[in-house]
Every structure is written in structure tokens, then in C-alpha cells.
Amino acid sequence: MRAFQHERELRTTGGLTATDITDEVIEAVRQSGIESGIACVYSPHTTCCIRISELENGFLEDFASLLQRLVPREGYYAHDDWDRRTENICEEDMEAGNGHAHCMAMLLGPAGESIPVQSGEIVLGTWQRILFIELDRERDRRWLVQVVGS
């Protein structure tokens, strides 16, 4: 059993944007030399996530619209109420609340995806792509892929 980890950085453009990281994950898996196992792709941020889906503009617009209807930016969020909030305070967040982005991230589930590796390649369906989804404002971000197997 072996493990390999690769980390990448990116600057997002903010608000409900999807960046296709599939090719970079494919390259990391190839670099790992692991033939059979699992690739875990993970974002260590609470207002973005990794998802596998189709990369098609109409779908991405529909998805963003759905999230905005479910969790509107303009709503009240206790997370952004500086008269109430006492934990995990970041000066940058005080300028532009991001309670909506945290709620969206919780709705979307875990911060990453696990993808099978067979014959040294990740196993994806025909139209599946690995997307880094930003739910907050423009920021410097990072994501990791860890490949475990033999």
C-alpha cells in the first residue's frame, strides 16, 4: 500500500463559479505511480467544495440559480451578525458577510470526492468532470489530491 499527495493553489473569481480541475487531477494520479486504488480530491475551505458533474454552461447556470434561490445572499445570517458572533472572527469577513456561502457548502455535502483508480487512471463517466466550486467571493484557494493504493 502506498500513498501520494499533491497540492495545488488557485485564485477564484468568486461567487458560484466552477473551475475544471480534472486534467490536473489526472496528472497527479499519473505522477503517483499508483495503479489501483482511490484518489481523494479535497478542498480545505469551508466555503467551496469539490464536485463531480457535467461541465456544461446551461447546467452550471441552472445550478447557480438553484443555489441562489435556496440560499439568497441578501438573507439574514447570524454568522454575519457582528453583534452576536464571537467565534472564528476574520477581519476580511467583517467587510463582506459570507453566511450564505457557508450554508450553501453545508447543503452540498462533504468538501471532496473519492474517485476509483484503475490501471493508473481515474475512473470517470463520459461527461464527468472534477469541479472546484467557489461559493464565496474571489479568494486564494487550494485543493489536494491524495492517491492511496498499490
Report what the structure shows:
It is a single chain. It is built from 4 helices and 8 strands; from the N terminus they run E-E-H-E-E-H-H-H-E-E-E-E. The chain has helices at residues 22-32, 57-70, 91-95, 99-108, and strands at 2-11, 17-20, 37-42, 48-54, 112-118, 121-122, 128-134, 140-149. The strands form 2 sheets. It has a 5-stranded antiparallel sheet with strand order 1-8-3-5-6, covered by helices on one side. It is elongated and about 55 Å long. The N and C termini lie close together (5 Å).
Give me a quick take on this structure:
The chain contains four helices and eight strands; from the N terminus they run ββαββαααββββ. It has helices at residues 22-32, 57-70, 91-95, 99-108, and strands spanning 2-11, 17-20, 37-42, 48-54, 112-118, 121-122, 128-134, 140-149.
- The CATH superfamily bears the name YjbQ-like
Strand order of the largest sheet: 1-8-3-5-6
Mean pLDDT: 94
Order of helices and strands: EEHEEHHHEEEE
In the CATH scheme, the class would be Mainly Beta
Could you give a short account of the major beta sheet?
Answer: 5 strands, antiparallel
CATH fold category name: Jelly Rolls
Shape: elongated
Quantity of strands, as a count: 8
CATH architecture: Sandwich
In the residues, how many domains can be counted?
Answer: 1
What is the helical fraction, as a range of percent?
Answer: 25-40%
Q: State the end-to-end distance.
A: 5 Å
Structural class comes to alpha+beta
Low confidence ranges = none
Helix count from the secondary structure assignment: 4
